[in-house]
Every structure is written in C-alpha cells, then in structure tokens.
Write a structure and sequence with these properties.
The complex is a heterodimer of chains A (478) and B (296). Chain A contains 14 helices and 20 strands. The radius of gyration of chain A is 22 Å and the shape is globular. Chain A is of the alpha/beta class. Chain B has one domain: 3-Layer(aba) Sandwich (Aldehyde Dehydrogenase, Chain A, domain 1). Chain B has a five-stranded parallel beta sheet with strand order 7-6-5-8-9, sandwiched between helices. Chain B has a three-stranded antiparallel beta sheet with strand order 3-4-10. In chain B, α3 packs across α4, α4 packs parallel to α6 and α8 runs parallel beside α9. The radius of gyration of chain B is 21 Å and the shape is globular. In chain B, 51% of the residues are buried. The chains are: A alpha/beta (478), B alpha/beta (296). The interface between A and B is large, with 41 and 34 residues.
Chain lengths: 478, 296
Amino acid sequence: MASVFEYAPAPESRSVVDIAPSYGLFIDGEFVEAADGKVFKTVSPATEEVLSEVARAGAEDVDRAVKAARKAFEKWSALPGSERAKYLFRIARIIQERSRELAVLETLDNGKPIKETRDADLPLVAAHFFYYAGWADKLDHAGYGANPRPLGVAGQVIPWNFPLLMLAWKIAPALATGNTVVLKPAETTPLSALFFADICRQAGLPRGVVNILPGYGDAGAALVEHPDVNKVAFTGSTAVGKSIARSVAGTDKKLTLELGGKGANIVFDDAPIDQAVEGIVTGIFFNQGQVCCAGSRLLVQESIQDELLDSLKRRLSTLRLGDPLDKNTDIGAINSAEQLSRITTLVEKGEAEGAERWSPACELPSAGYWFAPTLFTNVTQAHTIARDEIFGPVLSVLTFRTPDEAVAKANNSQYGLSAGIWTEKGSRILAVANKLRAGVVWANTFNKFDPTSPFGGYKESGFGREGGRHGLEAYLDV
Amino acid sequence: MSDQNRLSVFKTYKLYVGGKFPRSESGRVYEVQDHKGKWLANAPLSSRKDARDAVVAARKAFGGWSGATAYNRGQILYRVAEMLEGRKSQFVREVAHAEGLSKAKAAEVVEAAVDRWVWYAGWTDKIGQVVGGANPVAGPFFNLSTPEPTGVVTVVAPQESSFLGLVSVIAPVIATGNTAVVIASEKAPLPALSLGEVLATSDLPGGVVNILSGKAAEMGPHLAAHQDVNAIDLTGADADLARELEIAAADNLKRVLRRRTEDFTGSPGTDRMTAFLETKTVWHPTGSLGASGSAY
C-alpha cells in the first residue's frame, strides 16, 4: 500500500533531550551508585542503540531508599496540605515546560510513536499531577472522614508500557496524601523516571520524599517485601501481581494491583462502521497493543462481520509502521526483544491452533524490535489467543449473534479490566455496560483516560482504583 | 400440663444453603456447649463439599440479587429486621447461652443486631451516590463511575460476637448485591444457624446468604482457594489462618478484608460495604450541538 500514501520523513528533533552516558539511583535527593556497583544498559528498541548505562538497584539499595523515605515521611506528612499541593503544582508545571524533551526521551527509551508520547502520555502526566495537587489540602472533604492519615512509605513498581504516566499515577496521589515513595521503574524503560528525579530537584522537593530505583524484578521483590514499607502499588502482569499478593499476606501493607486484561470490543450491527473501525484500531494498535486495557478481542455481530473486516483491513493497510520519532508514525517498536518473542510465540500458537492470521503488507525495519499489525479470524473462545493477554499489536476476532451472547463471551475471561461497546442504540449501551464485568467501559469510543476518571479492574485484572477521588483511598489509612 | 413437667422439643440445627436447610453431607456433627460447658445442641460439622455446594448456591443467586433494584434489596433487608424483632426472645436465649451474657445484656445485643439490619436496609439505595458519581473529564465525554458488587464473598464470621458480629459482617456484604458463604463462629454457631431461619422467611432469595457451621480451619482453605469465589472477609480467622487464607486467596486475586479487632457496638461506617464493591466507569462521547441543533 506504500504507493497510496507516500510520506516524506518528518522526524522530531532528538536534540531537545540530553541523555547522560550514565545514571545513578536517586536516593535521599542524590544520584548514587548501587551498593554492589552493578549497572545495566538501556537501549532504544527501535534501533537497539544503547542510550545510557544505569545503576541497578539491589536489596541493599532498596533498604537505603526505604530508610530515606521513612526519614522524610515525618516532615512531609506533617506539612500543611496546601504546601504539599504547591510542590505538586510545581512538578506539574515543570513537566509541562519540559514536555517535549520528555516526550522524545520516552519515545527513545520505550519505542512508542512520538505522536503518542507528545499527545497522550505527556499531557496526561502533567494533568495527573495537577489533579492530585489540588486534592492535597482538601482531603477532609474526600469522603474518607475528617483528617484522613497517610500510610507511610509507599513501595511502587511500574511497567514499561507507559513509563512516565504510570509513575504519575503512582507518585501524584501518594505525595498528595502525605506519603513518601520508593519507586522502581521497569528495567527496559528507566530513563523518564530518572529525568523525573531531576524534576523533583528543580521543584525543590524535600530529599527522600521521592526515591527512584532503576532495577530488575529482584529489586521490585525486595521493595515489596521490605518490612518498613506500608503500602505496595504494582502495575504489571497478573502472574507477578499474584506473587505480590501472596508476599504481603498476613502483613499490614495496603495493596493495590493493576494487572492484565483481555478487553472485549463489542460491535453491534447498528454501529457506525467507520467510527467503530477507528475505535478498534485505537483499541488494539495504540502503543503497539502493549496496553493492559487494550481491546484485544473484537466481538463483532455476525451479520456485519464481512463488511466490518473489509473496512478494518483497508484501514490497517494505511497504518504507518517505523521510526517512532517520525511524527507520521502510527506503529512504533515493540519495547524489548523479550516482549517481541512473547508476542511471536503466542501468534505462532494462534496459527497452530487453527486461527487464520492476516497482516497488511508491511515492511519491518532491519534493526530493532518490530511486529506488524496482526489480525486473527476464525478464533474461538477456547483458543489461547482469545484467552491469554498477548500485549502486542494482535487482534483476535470472534463473532456473536445476540446481545446476551456478546455479554457472555465478553465476560468469559479471567480478566475484567476494559470493554468497548459500539452501537447507536442508547438503551443497549446501558444494558450491556451494566452486565459487563469490567472496570472501564468505553461506549462508542476506546482507550480514553483522564485523571478524574477512576481506572482499574475486576477479577484477575487487579483491585483498587487509580484516578479520581477513588484513587486517594489507596494511599490513605481508611 | 405445666412447663415444669413438659419435656421440651429440641431443635435439630441445620445448615442454610441455597434457601434450604440441609444437614452436612458428611453426616458429621459436633457438640456445642454454653459458656459453662453444658450441652446445647449438635451442630453440623460442615465439610469441603458443603462449602462447595454453598458457593454454587451463592453464584446461582448472584445474578438475580445483584440485578434486583437497590430499593428492593432495602425492602428485603428491612424485612429481615422485622422477622428478627418478632423472634427476639429466641435469639436472646441463644445469645445468652452462646456468649455467657445476662438476659438483659443479650437483649441489648439482639436489639443492636435488629437495628443493624435497619441501618444497612437504608444503605442499599444510597451507597451508589455516596461512592460513585460523574467525573469531570477534560473532553467531550459523559463519564460515570458506579459501584457494583464484587460477586460471591466468603465470610469468616467473628468467633466471639456470635450474633451482633455475625449480622455486622453479613449485612454489608449483601446490602450492595453480593452473595455470601458464611462460616459461623465455631464454638457458638447456634445464633447463626437460627438466623438462617429468619432469612428464609424474609423474602431473601435462596442462596444469597449461605450459613455453614464447623471449623474455619477446615473449610476456609477450600473457600479461599475456590476459583468461583471473588472475595473473602477474614474477620473471624486467627492470625495464622488469616495469613494462610490470604495466600490462598491470591490464586484468583480475591478481594481480601483482613482480620481486625472491631467493636461491633459502634457505628459501622461504610468500609465493610466498600470492601466488596468494584467501581465501574462508563465513558460515552457527548457529541456537540451544531448550529442546526443536531448532535450529528
């Protein structure tokens, strides 16, 4: 299809971001080396170029960071809420000021298109801090009783798919409510969290209130299991979420988990097809499908299957895959070689189990980690690709005849994070939304986020909500 | 014949599962004594199979109960209070025996339990507005968050407060549309088993509350690991059992309400309800009205 849409390259300038050759851990307001001197490299998944060498936190560093956070807690939690608010407003503003730099950085380290980091990630990051800043001096009015107290030290472990946004979802409500934090970013995307440490410095945030520990799963486990941590917040895979739930059992640690999903995007026969197609594309190809709330199962009413799939395939043929820094790029790189191999394995399984695979003609760059937008038809509910989270640009198409069948199929999942409904009939939207066991339901839209809107799962997609008034509860002793 | 000469009729205490009153399928019973060690009754010693049957009944009841209007649930919870009020003297006697209280003290406990049903009856159609609402998102979207029941909830009822404590942990679970599998106080299960008789005559659909007597340590692990249970309340588990059950509950990420010491005579607050509520957020574009006044 390249002949239809020829675009000249329109790369965003890389020069707005200055990545140092090496970074330390951010503990007690200072960048320090890991106690055992270990480091790891972070690469650009689009080119496999090494971006920087980063200190790798171990158990000793976790202990040091928790101690710093504990020490900072007393003063931070005793600050008037109005003062804490101003720190968070400062952070929100600095993020806005540096948003182009951070967008480019995030695109380099994560591989997602600049269009997304610039127009979705960064605006949402700033908005999230701005939103929770406003709560800091209004907690008495949040519905959790008078003078609700913070929990103490929050240990937070975040994923690589929205590195800075997940950081914002974790740190903003924690600080607004008076907690101090130790946050571990994912090992493939540590840079934006380290830049955030610099933003804390610029904002004059007291030392120890935010500590950033780049590292691997061992550091995450040490953090979650540290006896002086009062709150554990994790976003990531359901398997790790379960092991965390086991490890905090019998303690007083408050736990919130935001885990996997297998969202059903339901298209009824009266849906506006063109809008539904856009919604399906947004649902599964936004961020290369590496989204916990992705609409990875398309449930289409049988009578419009052919028409819808024709339109969808036509649309997929126009998606532009390539340099994430190019402003025209729709599909960027897969975050890591590991993730690429997970996607590949599941897709091969889909074929082996008899589903029909289709991708548009699509040239993949020779370096980096790439996967073409992929669609499976002839999928049944028993297929692995209809049950397991793929976390990649892979859509499984199933059909239904009646609304009841659509609901039953949508709910036939261990997960319950998101769902979509496409129909012009209002009463059907409300009836179906009512019956879906999912924490977020997008009707005639998909993948919309807002700091005021609570987000989180049913069933094995986790528990607790992030965003809105609801998001405060996770960080308050209530 | 005067009371003195008349031989009283004992009650065979039975489980309450799926709206019926079965014995334990295991055929086992255990001796229940009052606080002085006097025999009161043989209670069913429920088995793993009984617990599983109770989950099946609770799951079957969930659709109807969670789909009932909040007003209807409130009416039924209030009906429970009415039925209990009428059978007060029976519960005063059972609670006095179970907890070693004077008749006057036991009466206070039972009255507080009746009032607790009334409190939660009033909550059914209010909690949605208190914890849900419209979210002012930065875009042309209608965005509404609504609390919904988590599903089937296993409740390890308090060991000491055999009746007020029991009611205080069951009512908030079902007020919002969950269904419950309850493990009664092990040493004082009789008020709980009698509560089943009250629930059965209060228009509460069968299966919404299922009451098992026996050992929490025996049934608990199966219920905590059960893949069709969505949440567990560990109030009545001791520290070791609570930890074991919380670990088992992680298998399908049950919502866990941890054990805690609680004065059930105090005002309950809302957190026992919110512990077993999910928040669902629904988005829809609002569109915009052009000059023609049309949304399209």
